[in-house]
Amino acid sequence: MLSSAPDPSDKALVPFVSVANMMRLVHHLGLDAVIRSLTGHIEEDFRRWERFDKTPRVASHSPVGVIELMPTSDGEAYGFKYVNGHPRNTRAGLQTVTAFGLLADVATGYPVLLTEMTLLTALRTAAMSALAARHLAPEGARTMAMIGNGAQAEFQSRAMQALVGIDTVRLWDIDGAATEKCARNLAGSGLAIVRCTSAQDAVEGADIITTCTADKQYATILSDNMVGAGVHINAIGGDCPGKTELAPAILGRASIFVEYPEQTRIEGEIQQLDPDHPVTELWQVFAGAAPGRRSASEITLFDSVGFAIEDFSALRFVQQAIRGTPFFEPLDLLADPDDPRDLYGMLARAGGAAAA
Ligand code: NAD
């Protein structure tokens, strides 16, 4: 128990985790421990998949990006994330992806947590990648190609190191400054870092290929000839209609694993395929109801788009992790009149005289 922990028992005050406090929490627990714990929460929630209300996220598109709401509930708690995706933002010094989220008690409808989710999204996306790779990557995978060295890249690398045991990352980005930033941040992590000259160079000898680029178009980050037998592809960046990273021919050769097909068919790499192309739902793999990798020569693909249950799991993780810590502030978010029906009176008394 850390000193000066705020009292979370006052139902009208909502615990709020700022970016600064999220960073303190991660340093307090340790990055590997956070990723492991997130992985545990996600796996647990995916195993009780049928208990959740599920819907593809609600997306509002513009020519330069997307703003999305990602809700779900297990009947006891309700969560949602607000998240954007604006690939051109970095040119203006802004993040491509920012997010915040909320957890609420279904019994009362009262929010019980409000938190930043920009860092949390990077952490949960990395945890989800590593969890999928644990079931899909070839045995003894040690080398990962990391294509796209932006905000997510170090988190992806560290999660694959902690959970899958990779010891080498081969970095490639069309912007050399991003690769330098990534290499600098990963120095001292224990990972061997190789700066590559192209995507083709990066995939050389890689057991896992992670694509995590941001561009609102049908891009070809990996062409068919770059993907050899036995590789696991962790495709993160194609997560919107009209935004993909893989040549369609790769999809024809791969066993494809997805989060929630109804959303992935709209947003993922498989938007390039017929709507009835077979895919395996990862919750079934985690629950032991469907196989993961079946042979050493199989090409496996996690067509990641990011699903609401992963954010729900991340919110649950934060709710538990901040207990007994000073890493949140009580937020005066909810009106709390002494008589619940005297909302007007509360307002009037606050003004001292007539209500507004
Ligand atoms: P970012 O803008 O910080 O980094 C993207 C990097 O990709 C940049 O450094 C850019 O130079 C590089 N890039 C662009 N085109 C490239 C190409 N053709 N080859 C090599 N590199 C290229 O973005 P980010 O926050 O790291 O996110 C990356 C992508 O992942 C985004 O598209 C985002 O929407 C997506 N994302 C997905 C999930 C998920 O759950 N699947 C979660 C978070 C982010």
Chain-wise SSE layout:
Elements: E1 13-17, H1 19-29, H2 31-47, E2 58-62, E3 65-73, E4 77-85, E5 99-105, E6 111-116, H3 118-136, E7 143-147, H4 153-163, E8 168-172, H5 176-186, E9 192-195, H6 199-202, E10 208-211, E11 218-222, E12 232-235, E13 244-246, H7 248-253, E14 254-258, H8 261-267, E15 280-281, H9 282-286, E16 299-303, H10 308-321, E17 329-332, H11 343-351
Parallel strand pairs: 1-6, 7-8, 7-10, 8-9, 10-12, 11-13, 12-16, 14-15, 14-16
Antiparallel strand pairs: 1-17, 2-3, 3-4, 4-5, 5-6
Helix pairs in contact: 2-3, 2-4, 2-10, 3-4
This protein binds nicotinamide-adenine-dinucleotide.
| CA(first)-CA(last) distance | 44 Å
Helical fraction: 25-40%
Report mean pLDDT, rounded to a whole number. 95
Mind summarizing the main beta sheet? 8 strands, parallel
- By DSSP, the count of extended strands is 17
Classify the beta-strand content into a percent band.
15-25%
Q: How many domain regions?
A: 2
Globally, the shape reads: globular
CATH topology of the largest domain: Rossmann fold
**Structural category:** alpha/beta
How do the strands line up in the largest sheet?
Answer: 9-8-7-10-12-16-14-15
The bound ligands are: nicotinamide-adenine-dinucleotide
How many individual helices?
Answer: 11
The CATH superfamily label of the largest domain reads: NAD(P)-binding Rossmann-like Domain
Rg computed from alpha carbons, rounded to a whole number of angstroms: 22 Å
Residue ranges: pLDDT <50 for 5 or more in a row? none
Q: What is the CATH-assigned architecture of the largest domain? A: 3-Layer(aba) Sandwich
Oligomer category: single chain
Order of helices and strands: EHHEEEEEHEHEHEHEEEEHEHEHEHEH
CATH class (first level) name of the largest domain: Alpha Beta
Enzyme class: lyase
Pfam families: OCD_Mu_crystall
EC number: 4.3.1.28
Keywords: Lyase
